[in-house]
Design goal:
alpha/beta, THUMP fold, 2 domains, 25% strand, binds S-adenosylmethionine, transferase, S-adenosyl-L-methionine
Length: 349
């Protein structure tokens, strides 16, 4: 049990290795990170068996940027027949689990394995319950089984409150048919990730005001309007007519980096494709000058050292706000709907 497995978007394995190594150094957990390119996962191999648990309890999963899911455990080889027997035997010495998720990696092989997992789940669940190893809704950890093939599985454990909210860290969001672009799901996912559900009514309330920078055709604006928030949509490009007809949207053909609202707004969101340093500076200005209370801004990452770049930008934002004497919470995540990018969320406190 000396391995921590982390899922990620394929192509971001090096970022996960760098980030988890940083966390391990901070927590004084000895070990090393390894990953195969495009495998959609990385592993942190600890020098001792308590390392993974120390890493997981010392870091908040939701605060990590690139990992989509994590679990501590080990790889098992399963036989062709009686996979369940071998799994039960392996889990014997483990605590009683409060939930079971069967997961695959976000690769083509992984997609092909999803069917196998669906079929395997019901009999496995039944056997675990019968053996007293699974009590849904109990206090125990979550059992996370990541299948690499029908014969190779990572038998992992994670605390439900300190791991991904959805299996594989992939939210099942339904694309709203009326929304004018698929990007709409990025903002919805950001809200799920950064705002506890019970606070939505207070922090995304009807009658609030927002500025959407780089708004065309209106996917993000649609999300705001859907919550009855009044939006200043800033873009030289055209906005969806139905959104304009909603009476809640004003279209400003202006440069998003120069635009300032006459009065402070509740929200600023920005999806402009620009150098990440420029978008990060914009974020610092809006929160720092009190132009908005909360902001969601996308940072595109076309460079190689993406973790190092994001870390540098987040530190710069934090330093800038500290110099102004402004307190804010700063979050950053590569969401499932993000491609070569991450999403930042800031809230003035
Ligand atoms: C990725 S798209 C935004 C998609 C939008 N969030 C949606 O959900 O439909 C980026 C937009 O930024 C706009 N843009 C680029 N530079 C801009 C600038 N300096 N000021 C305002 N908008 C800009 C582009 O016209 C483009 O419409």
């Amino acid at each position: 049990m000396n391995t921590l497995l982390l899922h990620c978007r394929p192509g971001f394995e090096n970022e996960v290795c760098a980030e988890i190594s940083d966390q391990a150094a901070r927590l004084d957990v000895a070990g090393y990170a390894k990953a195969k390119t495009d495998s959609a996962c990385a592993e942190f191999i600890c020098n001792d068996a308590v390392g993974p648990e120390r890493l997981m309890s010392g870091a908040r999963f939701a605060r990590l940027i690139f990992p989509r899911q994590w679990a501590r455990g080990e790889w098992l080889t399963l036989p062709e027949t009686d996979r369940i027997g071998v799994l039960l035997d392996h889990l014997k010495s483990m605590p009683v689990f409060s939930s079971l998720w069967l997961e695959v990696l976000d690769t083509n092989d992984g997609k092909e394995l999803s069917n196998f997992c669906r079929k395997f789940e019901a009999p496995l669940r039944k056997a675990l319950e019968k053996a007293g190893k699974l009590k849904e809704g109990g206090q125990g950890p979550r059992l996370l089984l990541t299948f690499k093939s029908g014969r190779e599985v990572f038998a992992g454990i994670a605390e439900a409150k300190n791991s991904a909210m959805w299996p594989m860290g992939i939210p099942r969001l339904k694309f709203p048919r009326q929304a004018p672009s698929r990007s709409t799901l990025k903002l919805e996912e950001a809200w799920h990730h950064f705002i506890p559900r019970e606070q939505w009514d207070e922090r995304l309330a009807p009658g609030m005001t927002a500025v959407d920078l780089g708004a065309s055709p209106g996917g993000w604006t649609w999300q705001l309007v859907n919550r009855e928030i009044e939006v200043m949509a800033v873009d030289n490009g055209p906005m969806n007519e139905e959104l304009l007809d909603s009476g809640l949207v004003g279209h400003y053909r202006a440069d998003g980096f120069a635009f300032r609202p006459k009065r402070p707004v509740n929200w600023m969101v920005c999806d402009i494709v620009e150098k990440p340093a420029k978008n990060a500076a914009l974020l610092e200005t809006w929160i720092g000058e009190g132009l908005c209370r909360e902001a969601v801004v996308n940072l595109k990452l076309p460079m190689k050292q993406r973790y190092a770049e994001v870390k540098r930008l987040l530190e710069r934002i934090a330093d800038g706000l500290a110099e102004r004497g402004v307190k804010a919470s700063i979050g950053c995540k590569q969401l499932y709907h993000d491609r070569e990018e991450v999403t930042c969320h800031l809230r003035r406190l």
